């Protein structure tokens, strides 16, 4: 069918116009590729440990999620079918799964030397050139050429005694040194007789838990209405 434009007088085909119109559904089509399944870590070797760490009583569902693959591949609907309720709990689990895929862990997640769910932390001193570290993180050795850098590492005592190369040392995140050699951080337990320079950190329930906010006066959505109703009620009481 050929139509003439009332303005320009040119001819165009409605069929051609229909075919050349862009397909917006195709542009918005989403890929069905499943996200990758990350590798377990020494501190988080299995689904049970993962559910224990993120808290919110998700460890009670450990018997329903038995494999590492299922932990990172089950959909929200499948988790619902397994009885993981309410919906906000499933969203929380999916949120932590996504963080773990990106390498965003809670305290202790970056530890490599772990045995029976526990890791040992110790303070080591490494001599490095002056230009390698900021002044506020080290003290001068007296030579003017080298400084001593203190850091908290997750290395066995034997490796520290033999001397670990500076390039292989990685400071433990979330910990700090207070005073001369005292390790301070969440869930840290000092080893007796070490004056705080050696400590252990062990998997505990809720170590990575992000606690839910507490609703005040009905929460953010109803706060103004609830507080106004309270104010009016107080005024009526005062008038009486």
TrEMBL record:
Membrane-traversing stretches: none
Primary location: mitochondrion
Location within or outside the cell: Mitochondrion
Keyword presence, Ubl conjugation: no
UniProt entry keywords in alphabetical sequence: Mitochondrion
Small ribosomal subunit protein mS41 SAM domain boundaries: 47-103
Family stated for the protein in its record: Belongs to the mitochondrion-specific ribosomal protein mS41 family.
The protein, known as: Small ribosomal subunit protein mS41
């Amino acid at each position: 069918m050929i139509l003439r434009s009332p303005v320009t007088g040119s001819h165009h085909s409605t069929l051609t116009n229909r075919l050349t119109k862009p397909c917006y559904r195709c542009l918005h089509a989403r890929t069905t590729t499943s996200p990758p399944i990350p590798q377990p870590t020494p501190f988080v070797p299995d689904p049970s440990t993962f559910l224990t760490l993120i808290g919110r009583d998700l460890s009670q569902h450990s018997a329903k999620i038995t494999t590492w693959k299922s932990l990172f591949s089950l959909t929200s609907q499948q988790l619902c079918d397994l009885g993981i309720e309410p919906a906000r709990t499933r969203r929380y689990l999916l949120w932590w799964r996504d963080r773990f895929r990106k390498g965003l862990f809670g305290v202790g997640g970056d530890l490599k030397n772990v045995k029976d769910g526990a890791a040992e932390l110790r303070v080591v001193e490494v001599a490095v050139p002056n230009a390698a570290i900021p002044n506020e993180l080290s003290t001068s050795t007296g030579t003017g050429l080298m400084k001593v850098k203190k850091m908290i590492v997750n290395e066995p005592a034997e490796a520290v005694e033999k001397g670990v190369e500076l390039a292989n040392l990685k400071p433990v995140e979330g910990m700090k040194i207070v005073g001369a050699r005292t390790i301070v951080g969440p869930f840290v337990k000092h080893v007796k007789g070490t004056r705080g320079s050696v400590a252990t950190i062990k998997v505990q329930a809720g170590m990575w838990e992000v606690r839910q906010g507490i609703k005040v006066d009905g929460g953010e959505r109803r706060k103004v209405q609830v507080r106004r109703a309270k104010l009016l009620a107080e005024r009526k009481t005062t008038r009486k």
